[in-house]
Amino acid sequence: MKNLSYIILDGNLTSDPEEKTIAGGKSLAQFTVAVNHSQNNPDAKEKDDVSFFEVEAWEKLGENCVEYLKKGSKVTVMGNLKQNRWKTPDGENKSRVKVTASTVRFDSIKKREEKVA
């Protein structure tokens, strides 16, 4: 039996997606989604009840995210959790959990304006 690490996030981008090209020519978009938990809890303090999730979207999905999403865009992200682990030069163990998106639903689509030089 395979293990499962699937997640669904519904929230807003904290900044514009960043596009990168990695070794081998694959394109990658990275962005952070803020999920507000206090919407269902009237007693919660809004600033204390927000989680931030780092998301990566590959190839065409990532290209679409860069083209159509911007800071504040509402999205629903579906994907897998992935933990990266490494050691610092000082020997300290570090880790980070990211979401690798399989689907990104654009809940508030507005095409990003072309930047004029």
UniProtKB/TrEMBL annotation:
The record lists the membrane-crossing segments as none
Q: Does the keyword Electron transport apply?
A: no
Q: Which GO terms describe its molecular function?
A: single-stranded DNA binding
Q: Matching InterPro entries, A to Z?
A: NA-bd_OB-fold, Primosome_PriB/ssb, ssDNA-bd
The record's section on PROSITE patterns has: SSB
GO terms of biological process kind? DNA replication
Q: Name one GO cellular component term.
A: nucleoid
Please provide the record's keywords in A-Z order. DNA-binding
Taxonomic superkingdom: Bacteria
Q: Which HAMAP family does the annotation name?
A: SSB
Task: Share what the entry says about its subunit structure, partners included.
Answer: Homotetramer.
The name on file for this protein is: Single-stranded DNA-binding protein
Which source organism? Leptospira ellinghausenii
Mind giving the lineage of the organism this protein is from? Bacteria, Pseudomonadati, Spirochaetota, Spirochaetia, Leptospirales
